Protein 1
Amino acid sequence: MIIFIVLFFVVFIGFLIFLSSYELRDFVAEKFQSIFNKEKLFQAKKFAHELNSSSSLNQTQSHWHLQQWWILVAGLLLFASIIIFAFTRPISPTEIEADYLRKSDPQIYALLNGEMLTPPPEVDEKLVEEAITAAMILNSQNPDSTNAAHSAEHNLELLQQRDHAVIDRKWNKMNPRYKQRLLMVFKIMKERHGYELVLLEGYRSPERQNRLSGNKNTTLAKAYQSYHQFGLAADVAFKRDGKVVISERDPWAMRGYQLYGEVAESVGLTWGGRWKSIQDYGHTEYRMPGLRKTKEMAEQLTSETETGNS
Ligand SMILES: [Zn+2]
């Protein structure tokens, strides 16, 4: 914008000088005539004619030097088309996401330094299924002696991850404000602590939320009361030697959950492991300032950047 204003100003000044100086106008008019006099025009016409006829078959020998002009023209056209292509290519999804964050959440945008993180591929259903089975076996072998209710609770949580048809393990409905924070947690966990995270559930439909809240041991939140409906919450597990690990009875995983909680809190997320009633170690959420827990807001937050996801 500033460039345009400066450019306009320069042109305007030049125009004023031109208007106020008779000598300058005279000089320009003379130059103009000398360039476009009849002689020059005739020469140009002749050249154009020769250039055109040089491409005919019987002149390939005698007019080869003119044909080089055709090559130059073709080269220029090719170059121009590359330039046009480069400047008109569609805006990438990450650019949309970056634009969204720059406007809505400058804090995380600054933290990311303009570089949008890309989500890992969706976790294999078979691996999740195996992890659930392994965790339930571990749970029955080592029942929680001090808190029997917690064992049952954990089993229920595991069973709820079996609802494959309706569980969303993708990243596309998550709001970038949460998504980029969580991806940063993924990155730090891997680079600093050597834990690979996998996304178990991101967006959760209001229907599934209501079904879950039917059992008060797992969640008390009804539809539009959980951050999952706003694309602002997720549940994660770990990956070790190519296998998914969900169990809280696994000391390695439990250590991972503690670190996950610390890292998540450091980027402004709320960790479910700190909750008093029902601890949810894999859960984090972003308590977005100004959030209204309504259906409209949920739909807006989960869809407005849908094009901004890969
Ligand atoms: Zn959750």
Protein 2
Amino acid sequence: MANEYVLEGIDGPGLSNSIILKHSAAAIDTGAKGFMELVPGHITVNEATFIFPEGFPAVRVALQEQRLRLSCQCNAAAERLCQHQAQVLYNLVNRNELRIFFDDKLRNERIRKAAADYGLENAPEPAAYFQVELQNKKAVIRPAIPGLLPITRDSFGALQEALFSNAGPALPRGAAWSPDTVRCIVIRQHKYYKHLHIELYEAAATKDGKIKHPLTLLQPVDYIWALDDPRQIRFFTAITRFQQPEGGKRTATDIESLQAIIANPLQLPFYYHNSDVSEHVSVSSLVPVRVSALKHPISLTVTSAGPFL
Ligand SMILES: [Zn+2]
């Protein structure tokens, strides 16, 4: 059975060393090695569990309506705080990264400071939009709403980097088209991850200009060097982005790249790779397709939620 001790009429900001002393069973050496280094197994606003380094005992603390309840697994008499409960309280009172979970004054100060980065410092209740977490022995204030973004120079820089990064491989010296061949664009899905792949191929041509075996994968960067037309440069650069696309989010640059490919300034034929026929790109697994942008743009409706537009 856990012994429980309750401190009545107490709130977070009122927690102090003298209160612990007043309720402790015996004098405690707070300077002992490791005394102030307890790590909570779980901590959230007004509630925490600490397990002592030896694995025993576990102490639970909960603050509710000016009642601070502490329970401990040891069998000490319940008239006073046992040494474990006292040690937990000393840690809570004197270490701000733990105290912030119980002291709403301290917590609101820190949240208001963090809220300034989000333009919410003057919101009536900034605490409604943030939560506190313990990470690597530090209390971290995080937005409670996943989409809430800070508006600092750093975060804008990071966002811009993510959206408009154009870093690509260095361009080698220019190459020229071989005569008597057909160049074409092949659209296909990644075998496992289903990402969109767009590749440039060269094939021998039949008399009537159709592609025939064998097909050779070309590196678009090899041709960029020799081009002057900005539309053609955009076209080949865009293909490089889809040769080895990364999974996950599509960026604004991806959309611009797709538009540059669809513009097709060299009027190259497009083919879709039918992986049901063969997982390899071959004449038999390619289906001619026509690509174009949607005539009627897709519209997106955005509804405002609370103070966020
Ligand atoms: Zn105890």
